[in-house]
Design brief:
130 residues, 7-stranded mixed beta sheet
């Protein structure tokens, strides 16, 4: 099983980036997917999470209204569209997946998964300049 993030990079304040999380070895349609970020060793923060049914996605207060999580089942990929970026969005961004029968988007975003059936990507860096 592998989750591979891409799409990070350098953006100016107010700009946009779209992160991708491509999965192999699992069908993401059967998983709750979350985007998390971590800045210089600070505790990992849930940014956005979505249930396997794609209903009622969860966003952090910081992300709500600026970021959008979406899924392309045909590509087995989940995206995070980030608009109106701010310098405080600078962080390493990770995606995670956990089976939908053991978690929910709301729970995952507050409790980064660490169980034996959870998977994490290796991260993609986002730097937003002012």
């Amino acid at each position: 099983v592998q989750l591979v993030e891409s799409g990070g990079g350098l953006a100016q304040s107010g700009g946009s980036l779209r992160l991708s999380c491509a999965a192999s070895g699992i069908n993401l349609d059967q998983y709750v997917i979350g985007w998390f970020r971590q800045y210089r060793g600070v505790e990992r923060e849930g940014v956005s999470c979505v249930n396997s049914a794609d209903d009622d996605p969860i966003y952090s207060d910081s992300a709500r209204g600026r970021f959008t999580i979406s899924r392309d089942s045909a590509k087995n990929t989940v995206y995070l569209q980030m608009n109106n970026l701010r310098p405080e969005d600078t962080a390493e961004y990770f995606c995670a997946a956990e089976p939908s029968f053991i978690t929910s988007a709301r729970y995952m975003c507050s409790n980064p998964p660490n169980g034996g059936m959870s998977y994490w990507g290796t991260g993609t860096p986002v730097t937003v300049s002012s």
